[in-house]
Amino acid sequence: MTVPGRKPKPPLQVVREGNPGHRPVRESAKVPPAELTEPDWKTFFPELKPGRKPKAPPGADDYELKEYQQEVAAWMRLKLAADSAAAGREAAAREWERVMPVLTRAIGLSSVDRVVAVDYCVCVARLEWCELRISIEGLIVDGQRGPCKNPLTTVAAQYRTQLKGYVAELGLSPSSRGRIAPPEGGDDDDDDVFD
Questions:
Q1: If exposure means fewest CB atoms within 10 Å of the residue's CB, which of 1, 34, 85, 109 is most exposed?
Q2: CA separation for the pair 104, 115 (Å, rounded)
Q3: Element (H or E) spanning 35, and its range?
Q4: Residue 72 is inside which H or E element, if any?
Q5: 9: burial class by Cβ within 10 Å (0-12, 13-18, 19+)?
Q6: Which residue, among 77, 172, 88, 163, has the nearest Cα to 128 in the 3D structure?
Q7: Closest of 93, 107, 121, 97 to residue 184, by C-alpha
Q8: Whole-angstrom Cα distance, residue 180 to residue 108?
Q9: Whether the Cβ atoms of residue 133 and residue 119 lie closer than 8 Å to each other
Q10: Euclidean distance between CA atoms 119 and 25, whole angstroms
Q11: Which of 154, 191, 182, 138 is nearest to 16 (CA)?
């Protein structure tokens, strides 16, 4: 359920910018620090082994040839799924290594936020795969009734919409970064961005 109106500002932002309405400033939720561990990406992108491509039966009649074509189509779908899973594992792990250390330090991401962090990485990995396939197959593909828009463009648009929500929630864009309060405490470094 959505709440009407603007998103509330984090308490630190209210204090920093002033509180002209003199509304009470709520404290941020305190989450105990805990290590954010990288998941096993094989649970999200399982390893698949498509096996060998089926061989055409020699001297096949029309029925056997049609059956062979169905076997090849099934094998190709399984091979594409295996390639997709392998690329997804790699992309998700790369995104985790790139973003999570920064988020852990900057906004205090911890183990309770693991689901959001994992879902963000899975979303990025699947979006990368969609874009790769669109680049290979093209924007227009052959459909049952002739040329049509590649269905992966719709899937990519849905992942982009989902990614937009994660970017805002995790503070990964310049505008959303201003809405997130930095964690309290930590080490007393002089070179800290929040000092």
A1: 1
A2: 14
A3: none
A4: helix 62-107
A5: middle
A6: 88
A7: 107
A8: 10
A9: no
A10: 31
A11: 182
Which among 103, 162, 164, 129 has a CA at the least distance from the CA of 45?
A: 129
Tally of residues, the chain: 195
The band of 107, judged by pLDDT with boundaries at 50, 70 and 90, is: confident
Lowest mean pLDDT, pick from 55-59, 139-143, 162-166, 187-191 = 187-191
Q: Give the integer Cα–Cα distance in Å for 99 and 2.
A: 28
For the entire predicted model, the pTM comes to 0.73
**8 Å CB contact between 61 and 137:** no
Which pLDDT does position 99 carry in this prediction?
93
Q: Please, which residues bridge with residue 142 across strands?
A: 147
Helices (H), 108-150: 114-137
Asked if pLDDT for residue 167 goes beyond 80, the answer is yes
